[in-house]
Amino acid sequence: MTTTARPHPDHSELTAVQAALAAEHAAVYGYGVVGGRIGAGRRKEAQGAYDAHRARRDALRRTVRDLGGTPQAAAAAYALPFPVPDAAAAVRLAAELEDRVAAVYADLVRAAGGARRTEAAAALREAAVRAVRWRGSGVAFPGLVERAAAPAPPGAAGPDSDAL
User: Fold this and answer.
1) If you ran DSSP here, which 8-state letter would residue 141 be given?
2) What is the reported pTM?
3) Cα separation of 47 and 37, whole Å?
4) Structural domains for the chain
């Protein structure tokens, strides 16, 4: 009797899925902050985004397991990129969260193939649309904004940190 081993996924794909999972963990946390500060007029929008990120997070956990990995757990807390004392700052934070999530999904689009690539592209598009709704304007290439920015100063939060 012969057995066929389950094919091993490309390590870069699993790494990109784990990064997307980490970004979704951070987004769920961040939207908890947004929800606590956002004005009543945009609370439903914030709740919808929170629910969407929770659903993506849960799907990514399953994907990591399907790829033979162990889903990384959420951090207990995340450093916010700036103080969020009011509704205006909450709107800025929501746009920032979406930009960061879009960037990670752009990486997953590059690393994945087939259905995973299609799903990552859909997640990138959804994040870009939410960012435009929060900010009121868009960017030419969603998900690539951070790559055009100047390098972070030494000691700044990097992609592997618990910063949002």
Assistant:
1) S
2) 0.81
3) 12
4) 11-140 (1.20.1260.10)
